[in-house]
């Protein structure tokens, strides 16, 4: 389609109709791919073409307007181009306004950042359109600061809205910020509260970045809100949106000047350094003379042994450690530090002595607070706790799980208890020589899909054994070093770790309400139970654990916090992987069927992407188990 | 073949508190008894008889607050002591008396030891940290008139003065003060005009102690870090760093140069006393006797060089007395 410039007074409504029809049938990209570059060039300097273009879009009938506007916004190479092409369409046409200010920003969230930049830049470029920009910002902020939106909308939508807010902020001018400063402040305070309440770290970070940016804009002088969080690509991208890139990049002619200046500066330096060796040379012989005259050598030094750094000795006995840590001699902080550092290895080297005082040690360590500034205090304490727990699992586990549900502990202490239980369980269930480096904060194990690889390994083993039993060997070749079997230490204690934790979750205490405010701890508890379940594979108690866990999950399956739901779904995965299939079918058939239908529901309706993914994995696992059972001849 | 370091010649016990300061008074002619004055954390000043190795007298003048400095003023009959009760006391010890003749209220709550300099017969200048955080006050004794107050300029952020040394090149020249501050810098002050002549940042941590050799115009300072810093004073009265020496364990409480300027001793937080040659800071000996941080070291002023002693006082409540390099 090419336009013939002329002085003709033509009506282009026909063209608008064609354009509209084509766009609504889904061919936006093709037609606008050709049209937009042409129009961009033609409208660059020619007013008449601009007005023609505006007429073109204005005449598109309402029922096709959305498709056309969407296409233009997506296809335009920049906000200024969009401005030239659409003109004040959004002001004149109600449908276009709705699409641009409401639909694309609040109801859809799949567009790229470039599209957002186009859209919002377009709104900012004309004084007639700027009020729309302000209104858009207000509505975006309302959504951002509403707690129900934060809890229930998907993370991608929240990211989209955050980006839109930041781009709006970057376009605002001083007087406009002045006029809506109060509202910005109020929404920021509310929004930051909702975001920080969330259990998902990504949402918390989003909230922090946006709040910081808003605060930066409204407080140009004076202290600015600053959060501590780890920078990553997402936050950097978000922050870059706050700064408007200039439309043209001026090619700097400075480098040439700089270079010539530096060359000039280098020259005067050279003669200076050439002079220095001259002055240095005559000094040398003087110094040597002086050295010879120095008759200090009549003082003969005594024998000085190799200097060692002064080290405070750590106590060698566990009971001494207990004395030092309970602070009867609170003066000696050096000794306290040395004790804290040495405690883990002492506990591991003296299991018998530890067992005598294990509960007392566990109590001291749970309440131990940082007295001096040691590096890695939290990790040292945690490792000592894990060491005590693995040395004497049953009494210490009993103590820790009872303390988890006691009054007057901080949330941090309760979560520490969970971490310690998980790390100890991991250590107890792993074969000894296999000791991986313990890193604090064990996350949930990756749940891999094993499509039938289990069964393939099985038959191979069976065939090998048959061959071995039927062949006579004359010469055994070099035998591979085989992993020595080791009794599973977690076997005897798995129940002690697991059941007390699951017992009291619905009994609220004055300071601790798992089902109420403390849903963060509930989330961590659920994840911990999932890991304990996973580690309990091949233990005797696993079936009972599985049954209890299934009931627990069933009770909580509609929880509003997505972190808790993710935990519940990983509990199901652990269950499916750990409990032997025969036992599962024998004892839990009905519950499993109910769970399957619940999983299907989650897969379709849950707003959180991770929950849906986990539900899908669980359904696949269940399918695999069914297949495995059908494959084994009954 | 290097000899093992010597053992202490004798050890004085009986202070029953950590020893913070020591001062010898052995220069008198026979039959004067050589004495050692020690100030302890329990506020007592013990006068040790170096012939019997016993306490002759115990002076209690600081209300049980730690004594941080003792000096004699021209002989063993007049003693000056500084305590953490914010007082400097002047004692009259002649003929067996033990009375405080005068006292100066310093209003200083820190640990900075005062410095005495004899300017004329019967007249001394004393530099002490004053009430205000960064100031040093110079008083004339025994008249107790204030000569001047040395105030660093606003914004200098030197912190508290940690150690002081008043000196003059010879009897006719102007007295000058070297002060080490909390921010690790050493400042040279002109006392009569009350102005800073030179400032040098020697350490990253507070300067704990310093000593100065007026003849060679070289000084040394120790801090709570691992570095000893040696600096010199050139003709324009400017301080420059001459050399640094790195130690294995951090923390020096006290440094003192022997009156014959041949060796110096440092008292360390790692329980050890170190002896260095002054000319080139050659490490000569490590004296390992004490079991807690050594707080002070002091050389004796014996007129007979062979009798010269080194005393060290420590937190373990003992004073070790050594005879080292006495033959040179």
UniProtKB/TrEMBL annotation, chain A:
Coiled coil: none annotated. Residues 315-425 form the Telomere length regulation protein conserved domain. It is found in: Cytoplasm; Membrane; Nucleus. Residues 267-291 are annotated as: Disordered. Residues 130-225 form the TELO2 ARM repeat domain. The keyword Nucleus applies. Gene3D superfamilies: Telomere length regulation protein 2, C-terminal domain. InterPro entries: ARM-type_fold (IPR016024), TEL2_C_sf (IPR038528), TEL2_Regulation (IPR051970), TELO2_ARM (IPR057348), Telomere_length_regulation_dom (IPR019337). One of its GO terms (molecular function) is Hsp90 protein binding. One of its GO terms (biological process) is 'de novo' cotranslational protein folding. It comes from the Eukaryota. Keywords: Cytoplasm, Membrane, Nucleus. GO terms for cellular component: cytosol; membrane; nucleus. The keyword Transcription regulation does not apply. Belongs to the TEL2 family. This is Telomere length regulation protein TEL2 homolog. The gene is Telo2.
From TrEMBL, chain B:
WD repeats lie at residues 200-241, 287-328. InterPro entries: WD40/YVTN_repeat-like_dom_sf, WD40_repeat_dom_sf, WD40_rpt. It comes from the Eukaryota. Signal peptide: none annotated. It holds the Pfam family WD40. Keywords: Repeat, WD repeat. SUPFAM superfamilies: WD40 repeat-like. Gene3D superfamilies: YVTN repeat-like/Quinoprotein amine dehydrogenase. PANTHER family: GUANINE NUCLEOTIDE-BINDING PROTEIN SUBUNIT BETA-LIKE PROTEIN 1 (PTHR19854:SF1), TRANSDUCIN BETA-LIKE 3 (PTHR19854). This is GNB1L protein. It comes from Mohoua ochrocephala. The gene is Gnb1l.
């Amino acid at each position: 389609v090419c336009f013939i410039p002329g002085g003709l007074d033509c009506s282009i409504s026909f063209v608008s109709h064609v354009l509209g029809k084509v766009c609504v049938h889904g061919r936006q990209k093709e037609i606008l791919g050709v049209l937009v570059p042409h129009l961009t060039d033609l409208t660059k300097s020619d007013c008449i073409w601009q007005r023609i273009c505006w007429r073109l879009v204005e005449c598109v009938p309402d029922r096709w307007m959305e498709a056309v506007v969407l296409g233009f916004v997506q296809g335009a190479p920049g906000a200024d181009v969009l401005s030239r092409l659409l003109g004040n369409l959004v002001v004149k046409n109600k449908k276009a306004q709705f699409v641009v200010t409401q639909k694309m920003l609040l109801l859809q969230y799949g567009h790229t950042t470039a599209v957002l930049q186009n859209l919002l830049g377009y709104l900012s470029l004309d004084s007639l359109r700027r009020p729309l920009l302000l209104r858009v910002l207000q509505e975006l902020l309302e959504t951002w600061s509403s707690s129900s939106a934060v809890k229930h909308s998907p993370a991608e939508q929240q990211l989209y809205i955050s980006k839109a807010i930041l781009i709006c902020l970057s376009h605002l001018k001083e007087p406009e910020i002045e006029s809506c400063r109060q509202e910005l402040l109020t929404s920021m305070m509310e929004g930051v509260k909702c975001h920080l309440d969330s259990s998902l770290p990504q949402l918390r970070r989003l909230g922090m970045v946006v709040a910081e940016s808003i605060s930066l804009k409204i407080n140009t002088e004076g202290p600015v809100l600053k959060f501590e969080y780890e920078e990553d690509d997402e936050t950097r991208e978000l922050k870059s949106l706050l700064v408007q890139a200039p439309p043209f990049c001026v090619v700097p002619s400075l480098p040439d000047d700089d270079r010539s200046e530096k060359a000039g500066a280098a020259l005067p330096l050279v003669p200076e350094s050439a002079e220095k060796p001259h002055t240095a040379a005559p000094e040398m012989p003087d110094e040597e003379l002086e050295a010879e005259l120095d008759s200090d050598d009549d003082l003969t030094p005594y024998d000085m042994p190799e200097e060692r750094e002064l080290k405070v000795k750590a106590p060698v006995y566990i009971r001494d450690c207990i004395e030092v840590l309970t602070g009867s001699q609170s003066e000696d902080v050096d000794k306290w530090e040395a004790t804290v550092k040495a405690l883990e290895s002492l506990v591991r080297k003296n299991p018998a002595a530890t067992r005598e005082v294990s509960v007392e040690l566990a109590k001291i360590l749970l309440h131990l607070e940082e007295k001096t500034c040691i590096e890695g205090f939290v990790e040292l304490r945690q490792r000592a706790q894990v060491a005590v727990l693995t040395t004497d699992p049953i009494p210490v586990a009993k103590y820790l799980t009872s303390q988890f549900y006691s009054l007057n502990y901080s949330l941090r202490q309760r979560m520490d208890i969970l971490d310690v239980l998980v790390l100890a369980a991991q250590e107890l269930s792993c074969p000894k020589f296999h000791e991986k480096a313990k890193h604090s904060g064990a996350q949930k194990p990756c749940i891999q899909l094993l499509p039938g690889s289990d069964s393939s390994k099985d038959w191979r083993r069976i065939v090998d054994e048959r061959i071995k039993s039927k062949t006579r060997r004359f010469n055994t070749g070099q035998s591979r070093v085989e992993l020595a079997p080791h009794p599973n230490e977690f076997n005897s204690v798995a129940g002690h770790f697991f059941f007390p934790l699951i017992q009291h979750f619905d009994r609220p205490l004055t300071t601790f309400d798992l089902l109420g405010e403390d849903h963060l701890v509930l989330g961590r508890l659920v994840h911990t139970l999932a890991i304990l379940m996973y580690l309990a594979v091949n233990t005797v108690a696993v079936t009972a654990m599985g049954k209890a866990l299934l009931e627990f999950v069933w009770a909580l399956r509609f929880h509003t916090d997505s972190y808790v739901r993710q935990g519940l779904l990983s509990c199901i995965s652990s269950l499916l992987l750990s409990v032997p299939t025969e036992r599962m079918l024998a004892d839990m058939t009905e519950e499993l069927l109910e769970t399957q239908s619940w999983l299907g529901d989650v897969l379709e309706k849950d707003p959180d992407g991770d929950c849906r993914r986990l539900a899908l994995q669980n359904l696949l696992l269940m399918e695999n188990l069914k297949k495995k059972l059908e494959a084994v001849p009954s | 073949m290097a000899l093992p370091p010597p053992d202490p010649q004798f050890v004085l016990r009986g202070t029953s508190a950590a020893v913070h300061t020591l001062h010898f008074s052995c220069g008198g002619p026979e039959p004067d008894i050589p004495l050692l004055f020690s100030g302890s954390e329990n506020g007592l000043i013990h006068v040790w008889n170096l012939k019997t190795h016993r306490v002759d007298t115990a002076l209690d003048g600081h209300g049980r607050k730690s004594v941080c400095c003792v000096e004699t003023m021209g002989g063993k009959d007049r003693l000056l002591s500084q305590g953490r009760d914010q007082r400097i006391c002047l004692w009259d010890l002649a003929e067996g008396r033990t009375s405080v003749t005068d006292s100066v209220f310093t209003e200083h709550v820190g640990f900075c030891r005062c410095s005495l300099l004899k300017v004329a017969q019967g007249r001394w200048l004393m530099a002490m940290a004053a009430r205000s955080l960064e100031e040093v006050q110079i008083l004339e004794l025994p008249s107790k008139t204030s000569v001047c107050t040395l105030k660093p300029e606003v914004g200098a952020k030197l912190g508290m003065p940690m150690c002081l040394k008043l000196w003059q090149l010879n009897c006719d020249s102007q007295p000058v003060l070297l002060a080490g501050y909390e921010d690790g810098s050493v400042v040279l002050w002109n006392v009569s005009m009350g102005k800073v002549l030179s400032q040098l940042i020697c350490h990253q941590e507070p300067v704990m102690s310093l000593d100065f050799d007026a003849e060679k115009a070289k000084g040394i300072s120790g801090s709570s870090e691992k570095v000893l810093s040696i600096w010199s004073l050139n003709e324009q009265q400017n301080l420059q760093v001459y050399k640094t020496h790195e130690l294995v364990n951090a923390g020096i409480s006290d440094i003192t140069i022997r009156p014959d300027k041949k060796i110096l001793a440092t008292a360390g937080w790692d329980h050890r006393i170190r002896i260095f040659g002054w000319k080139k800071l050659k490490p000569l000996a490590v004296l390992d006797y004490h079991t807690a941080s050594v707080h002070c070291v002091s050389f004796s002023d014996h007129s007979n060089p062979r009798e010269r002693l080194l005393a060290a006082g420590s937190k373990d409540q003992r004073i070790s007395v050594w005879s080292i390099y006495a033959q040179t």
